[in-house]
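Design review, sub-item: ligand-bound model
Attendees: FS, YL, KQ
YL presented the inputs for the glutathione complex:
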Amino acid sequence: MKLYFAPGACSLSPHIVMREVGANFDLEQVNNQEKKTKSGADYWTINGKGQVPVLEFDNGERLTEGPVIVQWIADQYPAAGLVPPAGKPERYRVQEWLNFITISHGRFMSREAICRSRRVRSMPTP
Ligand SMILES: N[C@@H](CCC(=O)N[C@@H](CS)C(=O)NCC(=O)O)C(=O)O
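KQ shared the predicted structure:
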């Protein structure tokens, strides 16, 4: 398995979960501005969304979207007790929070991007 990540990005979440469960995996750093991986691959060919994280399986299949990736990892290592089994009401509480965090993070990052672009054009920030 390989986790595509970028420093300081939301790929940290699956990275932490992989470490937490003791998974065996490789890491490949992505330059999110240039959309290139450290080994020189065009990142658009890895993820058409151009975003990290991506979890790549040994058969070449890839999984995207942090909240999905962390649940997949947690489900492979039930002994770690990170998520309740699917079907239990508690599982949907986990999904409530994962969804909330993802949406909130997205909103925050969009606001940051707008502020940054305004700063570049020397406009007052809100
Ligand atoms: N919905 C995606 C969002 C992923 C995301 O926003 N990734 C950011 C880093 S935190 C990214 O790669 N941005 C680069 C870009 O959009 O060009 C998820 O939850 O995994």
